[in-house]
Write a structure and sequence with these properties.
The protein has about 325 residues and is of the alpha+beta class. It has 13 helices and nine strands. The strands form three sheets. Strands 1-2-3 form a three-stranded antiparallel β-sheet. A three-stranded antiparallel β-sheet has the order 4-5-6. The longest helix has 19 residues.
Length: about 325
């Protein structure tokens, strides 16, 4: 027995979960004696609805889901006491001529069938005299836009839906239905893909490695009192001004020091901070503290430890 028969709720869910669409269910009626109740459920999928009845909520929900599947697939539901739905003919299932005035539903079914984004409608201009209004409605499916006009919002919406159906049915290859990529914002994707296909990901090649090594060799051999002090003094003590120490070292060795405050606190409710050094490559160090000042000082201490580590070889060689 098919999943459609045994678990229509699951079958309906599976059909749309990959598109991020979740069918919604609600009880619309509960009647009858307590020992023999009758429940009616409605399932809602975008603008489409279907109902089903049963002696339990579960049965009624299954009947409603089966009715929705029947409506989407063009079957005529007529079992388990469910409310009969109008048949969906082949043209209508493909978004073709629908029952008069049912273009909104036909467009919805077309989108469901082909996996297009669900239609949305926006009210545009409203003109005319108070006794003879003229409404404009914009219908959007993905990147596609079609507008409709009419003496009421309903008429304008129907016209916009019909125009969208006509476009979607014929804009594909050889005048057939549009593909999903035609309807979604594929232009942006193609532009991104083109950029990615021509993008060169820079790796640290031998020349770059030599530049980095050269930078630290120069830093190591540059001398300077602050760099020497860095290797001689242990970076300890909460009262030490590591921010000032790093600033002086930056001036001496000609690199910039930039502090970036982090608004969010960490899991221990401490203030966080980042410090960036314009070295080669650029270094970013992290610090935490009870307030911004303490966090900056901690980040500066970590940056000093980093520089101490990167320039240690020469210092050891001088011993």
């Amino acid at each position: 027995m098919s999943n459609y028969e045994t678990n229509p709720v699951g079958a309906l869910q599976e059909r749309f979960q990959s598109r991020g669409i979740t069918p919604q269910y609600r009880v619309v009626q509960a009647e009858g004696a307590s020992h023999a109740p009758t429940f009616s459920f409605q399932v809602i999928l975008g603008d489409l609805t279907a109902t089903g009845s049963g002696s339990s909520k579960k049965q009624a929900k299954h009947v409603a889901a089966r009715a929705m599947l029947d409506k989407l697939d063009g079957r005529i539901p007529a079992q388990d006491g469910q409310t009969p739905l109008p048949p969906v003919n082949a043209d209508n299932a493909n978004g073709g001529p629908a029952a008069p005035g049912n273009t909104v539903g036909a467009l919805q079914e077309l989108c469901v069938k082909h996996g297009y984004p669900m239609p949305t409608y926006d009210l545009g201009a409203v003109g005319g005299q108070p006794h003879m209004r003229n409404f404009t409605i914009m219908c959007c499916v993905g990147k596609m836009r079609e507008s409709g006009t009419g003496g009421s919002k309903k008429d304008a919406k129907r016209e916009a839906a019909q125009k969208m159906i006509d476009k979607l049915k014929t804009m594909g290859p050889n005048g057939g239905p549009a593909s999903v990529s035609d309807v979604t914002n594929q232009e942006v994707d193609e532009e991104l893909l083109n950029k990615m296909s021509t993008m060169k990901v820079e790796t640290l090649n031998s020349a770059s490695s030599q530049k980095v090594a050269s930078f630290y060799r120069k830093l190591q051999s540059s001398g300077g009192g602050n760099l020497a002090k860095l290797h001689m003094a242990p970076l300890k003590g909460k009262n030490s001004d590591f921010v000032a120490m790093l600033g002086e070292l930056g001036k001496e060795q000609k690199f910039e020091v930039t502090y970036v405050e982090v608004e969010e606190k960490n899991d221990e409710e401490q203030t966080q901070c980042l410090v960036q050094l314009s070295t080669l490559p650029v270094a970013v160090c992290y610090g935490v503290g009870s307030d911004t000042k303490a966090a900056s000082n901690d980040a500066a201490r970590n940056a000093l430890n980093y520089l101490k580590m990167m320039t240690k070889r020469t210092a050891q060689g001088k011993k």
